[in-house]
Amino acid sequence: MIKRIVLLLAVVALVSGCAVWTRLDGATLSHAGASIKTPVDWMHLSARKDSLMITRDGVGIQFIDAAYLVDDKIFPKSKQVFSKDSPPQEMAQRFVGELRQLPGLTGLEVKNVAPETVAGRPGFRVLVEWRNDRGAAFQRVIAGAAVDNGLLVLQYQSLKRYFYARDLPEFERVLQSLKRS
């Protein structure tokens, strides 16, 4: 009996520390300095502190992540100094440099870099691609712009096959709704 109680308490402790996902119905969410209008039937990871992350099928398949980055959170790996007056192309190159330093993104290839209007500001759009350790191909679109004294960034990552094309229109709609909150 005591073993069952201890086991039950252990399970309760583990479950209480798990992330909390909330189903979305197209609501507008504000978190971590960013505001977006969410797609219907996607889910929000409410336990995340530094950004606004949503997914439809799970973050290992696809996600959209919005954040307003300031100070040392803009380029944490390279420790480069952020300047809101930097050209968007330069910000894009620096952001890709940060991605290249993340574990699991080996073989990262930049497929496209282009100008993009983000929250009404001139910004950048980057498309990158890589394969994970198991050989699955992923694509990520990063759109960002200098806003106030920080960088407003929206990222969409998905498995390249099937999911990327299916959910790219949702990313485009979220990008159009992105605002600094």
The total count of strands amounts to 11
Examine the coordinates and then state which fold CATH places here, giving the name of the CATH topology.
Protein Transport Mog1p, Chain A
What fraction, in percent, of the residue positions are helical? Answer: 25-40%
H/E series: HEEEEEEHEEEEHE
What's the number of helices?
Answer: 3
CATH homology group: Mog1/PsbP, alpha/beta/alpha sandwich
Uncertain ranges = 1-17
What oligomeric state is this?
A: single chain
Q: Which strand order does the major sheet show?
A: 1-4-5-6-10-9-8-7
Averaged pLDDT, please?
Answer: 86
Radius of gyration: 18 Å
**Mass-distribution shape:** globular
The CATH class designation is Alpha Beta
CATH arch. level architecture: 3-Layer(aba) Sandwich
- What is the structural class? alpha+beta
State the domain count.
1
User: How would you sum up the major sheet?
Assistant: 8 strands, antiparallel
Approximately how much beta-strand content do the residues carry?
Answer: 35-45%
Terminal residue distance: 52 Å
